[in-house]
Amino acid sequence: MTDRVSVPDDILQISDLTVRYSSRPGTPAAVDGVDLAVRRGEILGVAGESGSGKSTLAVALLRLLKRPGRVTGGSILFRPRDSAEVDLLRVGDKTLRGLRWRNLAYLPQGSMNSLNPVARIRDQFADVIVEHAPQRRGELAELVPRLLGTVGLPARVGGMYPHELSGGMRQRVLMAICIALEPDLIIADEPTTALDVTIQRVILQTLSDLRNDFGVTLILISHDMGVHAQLADRVAVMYEGRIVEVGDTRQIFKDPQDPYTRALIESIPTIEERKAS
Amino acid sequence: MTKESEGHRIDLENVTQEFHARGTTSGFMTAVDGVSFSLTSEAAQVVSLVGQSGSGKSTIARIILGLQKPSSGSVTYDGNDIYRLSRSASNDYRRQVQPVFQDPYAIFNPVYRVDRVLWKAAHKFGVAKNRAAAEERIEESLSAVRLDPAQVLGRYPHQLSGGQRQRIMLARVHLLRPSFIIADEPVSMLDAQVRKSFLDILLDFGEKYRMTTLFITHDLSTVSYLGGEMMVITNGKVVEQGAVRTVMADPSHPYTRLLLDSVPRPDPDQRWTDRITVDDKGDQILVDQP
Amino acid sequence: MMTSTATIGRVLKAPVAVVRSSPKLAGGLIVLALLVLTALSSPLVSRAIGHGADPVAVAAYERWLVPSPAHPLGTDQLGRDVLSMIIGSMSTSLQIGAIAGVISTAIGVVVAFLAGYLGGWIDAVLSTFTGILLVIPTFPLLIALSAYAKEVTLFQVGLMLSIFSWPFAAKIIRSQVLSLRTRPYVELAKVSKAGAMEVIVTELLPNLAPFIGVGFASAALGAIFGLVGLEVIGLGPSGVIDLGHIIYSAISTGALTLGAWPMFVVPIALLTLLFAALNMVNIGLEEVYNPRLRSER
């Protein structure tokens, strides 16, 4: 199933992307000829069960695939707001590094556990800024408390160590680091998994604010359909490496066209409806 | 195999569990705080214990299973303290109370085939008179959980999927027919489709063999699916209990209300209209009205 | 039903697969095997050189003979054939390493399991004791001990060395026991009425085999080189002739200045090979069991 024809205001255009883990013929590809266009400023949800290829898609986008996985075909056109269009798969390493964090940010699964345990939070911000935008080093003192505030964390968190924070707080720190350089696009892979449901709501609210207040485009990968229902503008459903359906969130939930999508929507567990409170 | 006609009961009376913890003022952290409830197997029940991580729910499971002696309070089986049972009474307790754990991979010792779990259970609890009879019972149990014995016996854990491994645990329960199943997050690591069939089998067993299940989970939609009774636990205390339908339709405790509010409804027409603020400590949640 | 022989067979099949998966492990084991074979060939070599007589008897031949077909490495200051001596003493070195390794590992395993699994005050006492032994400088103690060890047997040397090497094995194994004992399959065993001994032997031990292997290799290594260290400064226990002893002879008689370099170089080369082999085995085992250590291609 292909997405509609890409228009110039699409920030990302994935064409015929294929990722394989095994060169033996006959083994299915992890990502199989995926076409997807991402509109500037939207929240695009990528839904699917584990093994559907959605995480592999994210990792491939950023050229972070680990051997033996490799991209065997396709292109990914990225159009950042202040520089030329590039094909993320073919661009040089140096250019790619320049794009990372500044135009394209990534929140991997379980990333709340990947903060440097021996550095204070504000130093972790410093690491990113010094590496990717050294000219802004002077702004750090003002930037860190402001970014923490954006994700609802008090300024004193800057002086704390990761182990002093809960999982939810660490996830929000990572989100703050992600937006530090005001990227055009953030890819968040299962940002709420392994967090308590009450904290999950905070994370989702923060992600939504990022888009509403800063105009960031968000690709949200999650197996939890509730997350997509609450946040996404459009949803792409993946199954066995292919996108089986893409459409407005309402349409996907109320009028799914593809049989797999239909089965997926039908099997969503629900909670008993509450009496009007 | 017939069961005794009268049921058994497990009673928790003011159970408290404290652990040594660094970074606290007292040096202790209270995982379970004065919890009391009862489980009876007279009529098969499903009782869900709902809580977030760190709420104490898994500690309660371990206490009931006899793996962790509580700091204070008592757990009794038909009136007798389970931590003070005689050898034979203790064996009987073990037979009547069996677990299903969360991680379908870690539940199997990786150096052995999956059969071992079933054979050990059969052997230790004297499920059959001889080897042939035991083999028959094992195959019967595997079929009861809709697994093909030929597909599963002789395999190593890493050769099976998470869903298959978790079903072997259910087969083990089927083999032993305990009065009580203590299930600690058994489906949280399974895919949505696989989850449903697992829960269906669990409910079916409960009915057929008169087993009462204590189902521990953080996921409210699972609780809703299972029905029955529920208890909500936070910070080691049970703050609400009652029939699932009643509690979910009209929760009385603010924490329960917060939990229900926080689950993202899978309906784009019912988006959250209010906002959450987080207090200055960084992680206390308050819901603002719009 | 899983019989114990079937279990042992199964437990052995895994190591074979493991060895095949790691070039370092396989390489180390192959070199070790070659060294062991060489040591085992000692009687054959003696016969080939001595032609019936004992080539390492004092004054068997002329002193300081230059290497020749009859004596491929020459003879030493006492007229003994150097090749036979070296091969014979390598056998001694390996046996000492094996004995010390086995004893250390046995003690280490018992201590580690008791401390790690039973916890509480047993753990406190055993861990403190292990810690003390790890910290005190063992070399001077070994020197002191060997002053009393005038005419000792091979076994006694191995025993002496193992007194100081078991704490290393114990420490490694204990931390693994601590990590494994909270695994769900251990809890499942407990609710299936398994007693402590049964859990330790059937659930934990098979999963600890690689760590016990590392413990053994480390202890053997430590023992062999502890002994060499003592001997090259002339403070080794007398009564056993191993590779270190030969090196000491070579130094003290000034063999190098006399041109009799094989006596000095060959034992060192063999010890280096042994060191490398045992370390390869250790590194290989660690890589297999901790995939993150495997180097990216």
Which descriptors apply to this entry?
heterotrimer, A: 277 residues, alpha/beta, Rossmann fold, 4-stranded antiparallel sheet, 9 helices, 23% strand, C: 297 residues, mainly alpha, 11 helices, 73% helix
Description:
The complex is a heterotrimer of chains A (277), B (290) and C (297). Chain A is an alpha/beta fold. Helix content of chain A is 32%, strand content 23%. Chain A has a domain at 10-109 and 184-266: Rossmann fold, CATH 3.40.50. Chain A has 9 helices and 10 strands. In chain A, helix 5 runs parallel beside helix 6. The radius of gyration of chain A is 19 Å and the shape is globular. In chain B, helix 3 packs parallel to helix 6 (162-176), helix 4 packs across helix 6 (162-176) and helix 6 (162-176) runs parallel beside helix 7. Chain B is built from 10 helices and 12 strands. In chain B, the strands form 3 sheets. A 6-stranded mixed sheet of chain B has the order 6-7-8-3-9-10, with helices on both faces. Chain B has a 4-stranded antiparallel sheet with strand order 2-1-4-5, with helices on one face. The N and C termini of chain B lie far apart (60 Å). Chain B has 2 domains: 9-110 and 177-250, P-loop containing nucleotide triphosphate hydrolases (Rossmann fold), CATH 3.40.50.300; 253-290, no CATH class. In chain B, a hairpin with a 6-residue loop joins strand 11 (275-278) and strand 12. Chain B has 290 residues and is an alpha/beta fold. Chain C has a single domain (81-290), classed as MetI-like fold (Orthogonal Bundle). Helices cover 73% and strands 0% of the residues of chain C. In chain C, helix 3 runs antiparallel to helix 4, helix 4 (82-118) packs parallel to helix 11 (262-289) and helix 9 (196-232) runs parallel beside helix 10 (243-252). The longest helix of chain C is centred in the middle third of the chain and has 37 residues, at 82-118. Chain C is elongated and about 75 Å long. The relative contact order of chain C is 0.15. Chains in contact: A-B, B-C.
Stretches with pLDDT under 50, minimum 5 residues of chain C: none
Largest sheet of chain C: none
Residues in β-strands, percent of chain B: 25-35%
Q: What is the number of independent domains of chain C? A: 1
List the helices and strands and how they pair.
The complex is a heterotrimer of chains A (277), B (290) and C (297).
Chain A (H helix, E strand, L loop, with lengths): L9 E11 L10 E9 L3 E5 L6 H8 L8 E9 L7 E2 L5 H7 L4 E4 L13 H12 L7 H11 L16 H13 L5 E5 L7 H18 L2 E6 L2 H7 L2 E6 L2 E7 H6 L4 H8 L11
Parallel strand pairs in A: 3-8, 3-9, 6-7, 7-8
Antiparallel strand pairs in A: 1-2, 1-4, 4-5, 9-10
Chain B lengths: L8 E12 L7 E13 L5 E5 L6 H8 L7 E6 L2 E2 L5 H10 E4 L14 H10 L6 H14 L4 H4 L9 H15 L3 E5 L7 H18 L2 E6 L2 H7 L2 E6 L2 E7 H6 L4 H9 L12 E4 L6 E4 L2
Parallel strand pairs in B: 3-8, 3-9, 6-7, 7-8
Antiparallel strand pairs in B: 1-2, 1-4, 4-5, 9-10, 11-12
Helix pairs in contact in B: 3-6, 4-6, 6-7
Chain C lengths: L3 H18 L1 H18 L1 H9 L31 H37 L1 H16 L2 H10 L6 H27 L3 H8 L4 H37 L10 H10 L9 H28 L8
Helix pairs in contact in C: 2-4, 2-11, 3-4, 4-5, 4-7, 4-9, 4-10, 4-11, 5-7, 7-9, 8-9, 9-10, 9-11, 10-11
